[in-house]
Amino acid sequence: MRFHILTLFPDAFRLLTEYSIIGRAVDRGLVSVTATDIRQFATDRHGTADDYQFGGGPGMVMKPEPVFAAVDTALADIPANEREQTPIVLTSPQGRVLNQRLVDEFAAAPATIIICGHYAGVDERIRTGMITHEVSIGDYVLTGGELAAMVIIDAVSRFVPDVVGSEENVREDSITSGLLQHPLYTRPVEFRGMDTPEVLRSGNHAEIERWRRRQSLERTLRQRPDLLETADLTNSDRVYLAGLGWSGSDA
Ligand SMILES: C[S@@+](CC[C@H](N)C(=O)[O-])C[C@H]1O[C@@H](n2cnc3c(N)ncnc32)[C@H](O)[C@@H]1O
Questions:
Q1: What percent of the chain has pLDDT over 70?
Q2: Cβ of 57 less than 6 Å from ligand 1
Q3: Ligand 1 center to residue 83 CA distance, Å?
Q4: Spatial contact of 83 and 75, defined as CB atoms under 8 Å apart
Q5: How far away, in angstroms, is 188 Cα from ligand 1 center?
Q6: What CATH code is assigned to 2-167?
Q7: What ranges do the domains of the chain cover?
Q8: pLDDT tens-place string over residues 8-26
Q9: E strands along 38-153, which residues?
Protein backbone atom coordinates (compact mmCIF):
# COMPACT_ATOMS: atom_id res chain seq x y z
CA MET A 1 0.00 0.00 0.00
CA ARG A 2 1.56 3.28 -1.09
CA PHE A 3 0.51 6.75 0.03
CA HIS A 4 1.74 9.85 -1.79
CA ILE A 5 1.12 12.87 0.40
CA LEU A 6 1.30 16.40 -0.99
CA THR A 7 1.77 18.90 1.80
CA LEU A 8 3.45 22.13 2.86
CA PHE A 9 4.70 20.33 6.00
CA PRO A 10 6.22 16.97 5.01
CA ASP A 11 8.06 16.55 8.33
CA ALA A 12 4.73 16.31 10.14
CA PHE A 13 4.36 12.77 8.75
CA ARG A 14 7.25 11.53 10.88
CA LEU A 15 4.71 11.33 13.68
CA LEU A 16 3.09 8.51 11.74
CA THR A 17 6.02 6.86 9.98
CA GLU A 18 8.49 6.71 12.86
CA TYR A 19 6.30 5.39 15.66
CA SER A 20 4.30 2.37 16.72
CA ILE A 21 2.37 0.07 14.40
CA ILE A 22 2.43 2.17 11.22
CA GLY A 23 6.13 2.97 11.82
CA ARG A 24 6.86 -0.76 11.94
CA ALA A 25 4.73 -1.36 8.84
CA VAL A 26 6.80 1.26 7.01
CA ASP A 27 10.06 -0.35 8.25
CA ARG A 28 8.85 -3.75 7.06
CA GLY A 29 7.92 -2.36 3.64
CA LEU A 30 4.21 -3.18 4.01
CA VAL A 31 3.21 0.47 3.73
CA SER A 32 5.06 3.36 2.12
CA VAL A 33 4.37 7.01 2.87
CA THR A 34 6.05 9.57 0.63
CA ALA A 35 5.45 13.11 1.86
CA THR A 36 6.32 15.65 -0.82
CA ASP A 37 6.67 19.38 -0.21
CA ILE A 38 4.29 21.20 -2.56
CA ARG A 39 6.64 24.22 -2.47
CA GLN A 40 9.07 22.19 -4.58
CA PHE A 41 6.64 22.70 -7.47
CA ALA A 42 6.22 26.45 -7.06
CA THR A 43 6.71 28.42 -10.24
CA ASP A 44 8.84 31.16 -8.63
CA ARG A 45 12.21 30.95 -6.92
CA HIS A 46 10.73 31.84 -3.52
CA GLY A 47 8.68 28.62 -3.44
CA THR A 48 5.38 30.48 -3.24
CA ALA A 49 2.53 28.00 -2.80
CA ASP A 50 -0.24 30.32 -1.54
CA ASP A 51 -1.63 33.72 -2.43
CA TYR A 52 -4.31 36.27 -1.48
CA GLN A 53 -7.96 35.50 -2.24
CA PHE A 54 -9.58 37.14 -5.25
CA GLY A 55 -12.44 39.20 -3.87
CA GLY A 56 -10.68 39.74 -0.55
CA GLY A 57 -11.10 37.86 2.70
CA PRO A 58 -9.01 36.46 5.54
CA GLY A 59 -6.39 33.78 5.01
CA MET A 60 -4.23 32.72 2.11
CA VAL A 61 -5.33 30.26 -0.57
CA MET A 62 -3.15 27.43 -1.89
CA LYS A 63 -2.29 28.07 -5.52
CA PRO A 64 -3.30 25.58 -8.21
CA GLU A 65 -0.07 25.34 -10.26
CA PRO A 66 2.18 23.72 -7.62
CA VAL A 67 -0.55 21.30 -6.50
CA PHE A 68 -1.36 20.20 -10.08
CA ALA A 69 2.36 19.72 -10.79
CA ALA A 70 2.83 17.77 -7.52
CA VAL A 71 -0.10 15.47 -8.37
CA ASP A 72 1.23 14.92 -11.93
CA THR A 73 4.61 13.95 -10.49
CA ALA A 74 3.04 11.60 -7.94
CA LEU A 75 0.95 9.99 -10.71
CA ALA A 76 4.05 9.54 -12.87
CA ASP A 77 5.52 7.50 -10.00
CA ILE A 78 2.56 5.11 -10.05
CA PRO A 79 2.64 2.28 -12.64
CA ALA A 80 0.46 3.16 -15.67
CA ASN A 81 -1.88 0.20 -15.11
CA GLU A 82 -2.66 1.41 -11.54
CA ARG A 83 -3.26 5.10 -12.27
CA GLU A 84 -6.94 4.74 -13.15
CA GLN A 85 -7.66 3.10 -9.78
CA THR A 86 -5.62 5.61 -7.78
CA PRO A 87 -7.82 7.81 -5.57
CA ILE A 88 -6.73 11.47 -5.58
CA VAL A 89 -8.03 12.68 -2.24
CA LEU A 90 -8.46 16.27 -1.12
CA THR A 91 -8.72 16.62 2.66
CA SER A 92 -11.49 19.09 3.40
CA PRO A 93 -14.14 19.79 6.04
CA GLN A 94 -16.58 20.03 3.12
CA GLY A 95 -16.01 16.44 1.98
CA ARG A 96 -17.70 13.12 2.59
CA VAL A 97 -17.07 12.09 6.18
CA LEU A 98 -14.60 9.22 6.40
CA ASN A 99 -16.23 5.92 7.31
CA GLN A 100 -15.52 2.21 7.01
CA ARG A 101 -16.90 2.02 3.47
CA LEU A 102 -14.49 4.71 2.30
CA VAL A 103 -11.62 3.10 4.22
CA ASP A 104 -12.38 -0.22 2.48
CA GLU A 105 -12.43 1.55 -0.89
CA PHE A 106 -9.00 3.12 -0.31
CA ALA A 107 -7.63 -0.14 1.12
CA ALA A 108 -8.53 -1.86 -2.18
CA ALA A 109 -6.43 0.61 -4.20
CA PRO A 110 -2.71 -0.10 -4.61
CA ALA A 111 -1.83 3.58 -4.11
CA THR A 112 -3.56 6.74 -2.89
CA ILE A 113 -2.60 10.38 -3.38
CA ILE A 114 -3.66 12.75 -0.58
CA ILE A 115 -3.58 16.55 -0.85
CA CYS A 116 -3.30 18.47 2.43
CA GLY A 117 -4.87 21.91 2.37
CA HIS A 118 -3.77 24.69 4.71
CA TYR A 119 -4.60 28.30 5.60
CA ALA A 120 -8.02 29.29 4.15
CA GLY A 121 -8.04 26.22 1.90
CA VAL A 122 -7.20 25.40 -1.71
CA ASP A 123 -8.02 27.11 -5.02
CA GLU A 124 -11.38 25.77 -6.27
CA ARG A 125 -9.78 24.49 -9.49
CA ILE A 126 -7.95 21.86 -7.45
CA ARG A 127 -11.35 20.63 -6.22
CA THR A 128 -13.02 20.68 -9.60
CA GLY A 129 -10.11 19.84 -11.88
CA MET A 130 -8.20 16.93 -10.50
CA ILE A 131 -9.44 15.11 -7.42
CA THR A 132 -11.51 11.92 -7.26
CA HIS A 133 -12.54 12.21 -3.57
CA GLU A 134 -13.05 15.06 -1.11
CA VAL A 135 -12.78 13.64 2.40
CA SER A 136 -13.51 15.10 5.82
CA ILE A 137 -12.52 13.39 9.06
CA GLY A 138 -15.40 14.96 10.97
CA ASP A 139 -17.59 17.98 11.42
CA TYR A 140 -15.04 20.42 12.80
CA VAL A 141 -12.25 22.42 11.17
CA LEU A 142 -8.54 21.68 11.48
CA THR A 143 -5.77 24.16 10.67
CA GLY A 144 -4.41 21.85 7.98
CA GLY A 145 -5.01 18.55 6.17
CA GLU A 146 -1.93 16.82 7.61
CA LEU A 147 -3.71 15.28 10.61
CA ALA A 148 -6.62 14.30 8.38
CA ALA A 149 -4.23 12.58 5.95
CA MET A 150 -2.59 10.73 8.85
CA VAL A 151 -5.99 9.56 10.06
CA ILE A 152 -6.80 8.22 6.58
CA ILE A 153 -3.41 6.49 6.26
CA ASP A 154 -3.68 4.94 9.73
CA ALA A 155 -7.23 3.66 9.22
CA VAL A 156 -6.49 2.25 5.73
CA SER A 157 -3.12 0.70 6.67
CA ARG A 158 -4.77 -1.48 9.32
CA PHE A 159 -6.31 -3.43 6.42
CA VAL A 160 -2.97 -4.20 4.79
CA PRO A 161 -2.23 -7.86 5.60
CA ASP A 162 0.21 -8.29 8.53
CA VAL A 163 0.16 -4.63 9.62
CA VAL A 164 -2.02 -5.34 12.66
CA GLY A 165 -2.43 -9.11 12.49
CA SER A 166 -4.90 -11.13 10.51
CA GLU A 167 -7.66 -9.38 8.57
CA GLU A 168 -10.08 -11.40 10.74
CA ASN A 169 -8.77 -9.58 13.88
CA VAL A 170 -9.21 -6.18 12.30
CA ARG A 171 -12.73 -7.03 11.14
CA GLU A 172 -13.71 -7.80 14.75
CA ASP A 173 -13.08 -4.20 15.87
CA SER A 174 -15.83 -1.74 16.68
CA ILE A 175 -17.63 -0.22 13.67
CA THR A 176 -15.75 -2.48 11.23
CA SER A 177 -17.71 -5.48 12.54
CA GLY A 178 -20.96 -3.49 12.34
CA LEU A 179 -21.25 -3.35 16.16
CA LEU A 180 -19.24 -1.92 19.06
CA GLN A 181 -16.74 -4.33 20.53
CA HIS A 182 -17.30 -6.10 23.86
CA PRO A 183 -15.38 -4.84 26.95
CA LEU A 184 -11.72 -5.87 27.22
CA TYR A 185 -9.91 -6.89 30.42
CA THR A 186 -6.35 -7.83 31.33
CA ARG A 187 -4.50 -8.50 34.60
CA PRO A 188 -4.85 -7.87 37.51
CA VAL A 189 -8.04 -9.79 38.22
CA GLU A 190 -9.08 -7.20 40.82
CA PHE A 191 -8.10 -3.53 40.69
CA ARG A 192 -9.23 -0.81 43.08
CA GLY A 193 -12.24 -2.84 44.04
CA MET A 194 -13.20 -3.52 40.39
CA ASP A 195 -13.39 -7.16 39.36
CA THR A 196 -12.98 -8.82 35.97
CA PRO A 197 -15.95 -10.93 34.84
CA GLU A 198 -15.51 -14.52 35.99
CA VAL A 199 -16.73 -15.96 32.70
CA LEU A 200 -13.63 -14.58 30.92
CA ARG A 201 -11.44 -16.62 33.26
CA SER A 202 -13.60 -19.76 33.06
CA GLY A 203 -11.85 -21.32 30.06
CA ASN A 204 -15.31 -22.10 28.61
CA HIS A 205 -14.94 -20.71 25.09
CA ALA A 206 -18.58 -21.08 24.11
CA GLU A 207 -19.65 -19.16 27.22
CA ILE A 208 -16.99 -16.51 26.62
CA GLU A 209 -18.19 -16.03 23.05
CA ARG A 210 -21.83 -15.78 24.19
CA TRP A 211 -20.95 -13.22 26.87
CA ARG A 212 -18.91 -11.15 24.44
CA ARG A 213 -21.63 -11.15 21.79
CA ARG A 214 -24.24 -10.04 24.33
CA GLN A 215 -21.99 -7.33 25.73
CA SER A 216 -21.30 -6.12 22.22
CA LEU A 217 -25.03 -6.00 21.41
CA GLU A 218 -25.89 -4.24 24.67
CA ARG A 219 -23.12 -1.66 24.31
CA THR A 220 -24.15 -0.94 20.71
CA LEU A 221 -27.78 -0.54 21.77
CA ARG A 222 -26.82 1.92 24.52
CA GLN A 223 -24.13 3.91 22.69
CA ARG A 224 -24.75 3.57 18.94
CA PRO A 225 -28.26 2.21 18.33
CA ASP A 226 -28.06 3.49 14.73
CA LEU A 227 -25.53 0.73 13.98
CA LEU A 228 -28.10 -1.96 14.77
CA GLU A 229 -30.15 -0.96 11.73
CA THR A 230 -27.45 -2.26 9.36
CA ALA A 231 -25.64 -4.81 11.58
CA ASP A 232 -25.59 -8.47 10.63
CA LEU A 233 -27.83 -9.85 13.40
CA THR A 234 -28.90 -13.42 14.06
CA ASN A 235 -32.36 -14.35 15.33
CA SER A 236 -30.99 -14.91 18.80
CA ASP A 237 -29.28 -11.45 18.68
CA ARG A 238 -32.66 -9.93 17.87
CA VAL A 239 -34.39 -11.78 20.69
CA TYR A 240 -31.68 -10.67 23.12
CA LEU A 241 -31.90 -7.04 21.97
CA ALA A 242 -35.71 -7.10 22.16
CA GLY A 243 -35.33 -8.25 25.79
CA LEU A 244 -33.26 -5.11 26.39
CA GLY A 245 -36.00 -2.94 24.98
CA TRP A 246 -34.79 -2.63 21.37
CA SER A 247 -37.63 -1.97 19.01
CA GLY A 248 -35.57 -2.08 15.80
CA SER A 249 -37.06 -2.91 12.41
CA ASP A 250 -37.45 -6.71 12.77
CA ALA A 251 -37.30 -6.96 16.56
C1 LIG B 1 -8.70 25.95 7.99
S2 LIG B 1 -9.06 24.66 6.89
C3 LIG B 1 -9.92 25.50 5.59
C4 LIG B 1 -11.41 25.49 5.77
C5 LIG B 1 -12.13 26.24 4.66
N6 LIG B 1 -11.94 27.66 4.79
C7 LIG B 1 -13.62 25.94 4.72
O8 LIG B 1 -14.36 26.69 5.34
O9 LIG B 1 -14.05 24.93 4.15
C10 LIG B 1 -7.50 24.31 6.16
C11 LIG B 1 -7.33 22.90 5.63
O12 LIG B 1 -7.41 21.97 6.70
C13 LIG B 1 -7.92 20.74 6.22
N14 LIG B 1 -9.09 20.40 7.04
C15 LIG B 1 -9.71 21.19 7.93
N16 LIG B 1 -10.72 20.57 8.52
C17 LIG B 1 -10.76 19.32 8.01
C18 LIG B 1 -11.60 18.19 8.24
N19 LIG B 1 -12.59 18.21 9.10
N20 LIG B 1 -11.34 17.07 7.55
C21 LIG B 1 -10.34 17.03 6.64
N22 LIG B 1 -9.51 18.07 6.40
C23 LIG B 1 -9.71 19.20 7.07
C24 LIG B 1 -8.25 20.92 4.74
O25 LIG B 1 -7.18 20.40 3.98
C26 LIG B 1 -8.34 22.43 4.62
O27 LIG B 1 -8.04 22.89 3.32
A1: 99
A2: no
A3: 26
A4: yes
A5: 44
A6: 3.40.1280.10
A7: 2-167, 190-243
A8: 999 999 999 999 999 999 9
A9: 50-51, 61-62, 88-97, 111-115, 121-122, 133-136
